[in-house]
Specification:
15 helices, mainly alpha, 68% helix
């Protein structure tokens, strides 16, 4: 009876419990193993090992049962997770450690995956920001280039037709419409034709007169010598060839000079007449077509009684004469080398036109006409 019980009851139970012990702790079969059978398994396993069977034979039977696991869609645990058959408490401890390790590993994997996701997501974002910055810089550069092209077109048009050039820049909102804005444009913009600036400032239209007044009022002649003030005045434009335009410009200059230097002359009329004399002296002294040059005595004689019926100090007039004769008044465009034949001819022609215009204003003796080309 004992042998029959062992063969038909004990051995099947032992083999089945060994199979269940080899199943990983997370499987459902291991979770539902009855505690009572675990106790029977512990008792019977000890008895079988030491009484009925040799240890090797029992291990062979256990191995055969474990080989049946694939048929049950189960997989054995690793050696580190295997539960010792002679310990009752080992399975639960192993399960707890395995579960904790599994949770830690899962959390670590999740954290690593999140970090990788953040890194991968931040890289495109940084790349997108860099692309946007590059695109914005390109748009800004294109706008600046287009603005510069429009500006140069306006300057080119001014050098052909001043009023149309100014109107074009104003329509593009590159230039203000106030007289002060146009005056600043004429005073500070490079590339403008100096002769056309003078013609524009000398016009008698109301807007042109306002621009001219703003232009001259922006110049500071405080504590300046009279010839130095004229040089500064004529740095930005060339005097036009029409007498009326010259008259308007010189009248405004005289007013501005006396305002900046109240103690210089008795009135602005004195500065007005003397300014004409200085321009005439400059043209006479530095025009190669004028053979008979004006002397210092001639200069003093031409300006007698201009200070409200009195003469200006002789030392002042002689010093002024010397500075003009030895240092020609030039505008910026004339400061470059003008040794070429064409440039010299053009300068001489402008000088003759200016001289004729000045003589038509102040009157007096007219210079002898030159028969030379």
């Amino acid at each position: 009876c004992w042998g029959i019980w062992v063969v038909f009851v004990y051995l099947p139970v032992v083999c089945m419990l060994d199979v269940l012990s080899a199943v990983p702790p997370t499987t459902l079969v291991h979770a539902i193993k009855p505690p009572a059978l675990v106790a029977v398994h512990m008792y019977c396993t000890a008895a079988a090992h030491y009484v009925l069977f040799a240890h090797d034979e029992f291990c062979a039977i256990q191995h055969c049962c474990i080989q049946m696991l694939p048929l049950l869609s189960l997989s054995p645990c690793s050696d580190d997770e295997a539960v010792l058959p002679h310990s009752a408490s080992q399975p639960s401890l192993t399960s707890k450690h395995a579960s904790a390790a599994s949770l830690s590993s899962t959390a670590a994997d999740s954290s690593a995956a999140a970090s990788a996701t953040d890194a991968s997501s931040s890289t495109p974002r940084a790349s997108t920001v860099g692309t946007d910055s590059t695109a914005a810089a390109g748009d800004t550069l294109s706008k600046k280039r287009a603005y510069k092209e429009k500006w140069q077109e306006g300057i080119a048009l001014f050098n052909t037709k001043p009023k149309k050039g100014i109107a074009a820049l104003q329509n593009e909102e590159m230039l203000g419409r106030a007289p002060e804005d146009v005056a600043t444009f004429l005073l500070k913009t490079e590339g403008l034709d100096k002769t056309l600036i003078g013609d524009y400032l000398g016009e008698r239209e109301d807007f042109n007169l306002k621009v001219m007044h703003c232009y001259v009022d922006s110049l500071d002649f405080t504590e300046s010598e009279f010839d130095a003030a004229i040089r500064k005045f004529l740095q930005g434009f060339r005097l036009p060839g029409e007498a009326q335009k010259i008259d308007r410009l010189m009248e405004k200059f005289a007013e501005r000079f006396v305002k900046c230097n109240p103690a210089s002359f008795k009135s602005a009329d004195v500065a007005y007449v003397l300014a004409y004399s200085v321009i005439m002296l400059n043209t006479d002294a530095h025009n190669p077509q004028v053979k008979k040059k004006m002397s210092a005595e001639d200069f003093l004689k031409n300006n007698r009684g201009i200070n409200d019926g009195q003469d200006l100090p002789a030392d002042f007039m002689r010093s002024l004469y010397d500075r003009i004769v030895h240092n020609e008044i030039k505008i910026k465009d004339d400061l470059v080398d003008t040794a070429g034949t064409k440039a010299a001819a053009e300068a001489a022609q402008r000088g003759n036109m200016l001289m004729n215009a000045l003589w038509s204003i102040v009157g007096g003796y007219k210079q002898a006409e030159s028969h030379e080309p």
